[in-house]
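Cross-posted from the bioinformatics board.
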Amino acid sequence: AQKVTQAQTEISVVEKEDVTLDCVYETRDTTYYLFWYKQPPSGELVFLIRRNSFDEQNEISGRYSWNFQKSTSSFNFTITASQVVDSAVYFCALSEDRDNFNKFYFGSGTKLNVKP
Amino acid sequence: NAGVTQTPKFQVLKTGQSMTLQCAQDMNHEYMSWYRQDPGMGLRLIHYSVGAGITDQGEVPNGYNVSRSTTEDFPLRLLSAAPSQTSVYFCASSYGNIGAETQYFGPGTRLLVL
């Protein structure tokens, strides 16, 4: 079973529109971590945010904001006033707490196209 | 700090050839991992290491070997390349266990097996 589901394969918006990328995760653990990474066309993976399961506070960083809701097992990512430079594939990931090594589970990614 | 570095950036192999993908980090991170990324999929864990001399298998280990003789280096060896191993390979590292610490990725190695 998929531990991280990003149902939106590809989204296209026009510059300055707001866009929300959905992420739904599955875990039976009480302690876990959630991440978002950005992969621009150049291919590298850029870390955006890390949250632990005990911190449900929403976070805002400039034009980026994240909505963590344990009740719906979701960790959605919103870009406000999108820009062309936001065009990339965005990955949501889950890490479950283990003694030795917390394995990382990635979603399949959402490709965001921001048109001028 | 250079962060996580990977060489080569791109490689073409013929079926049956062997090669080593290099990964190094200069952040004194204990945890290192190798992932592969295939089209339309997220990254999948191949092997990981929690410190020098300690390695273990991830989700898709078949056809790959690793070793960790130093904290800095974590090479990935393809024993006998197959077309199914055509992929983009990412190396990653973190200071401590993932989640408690952030995992940082290298720039990737694009591998084509003919």
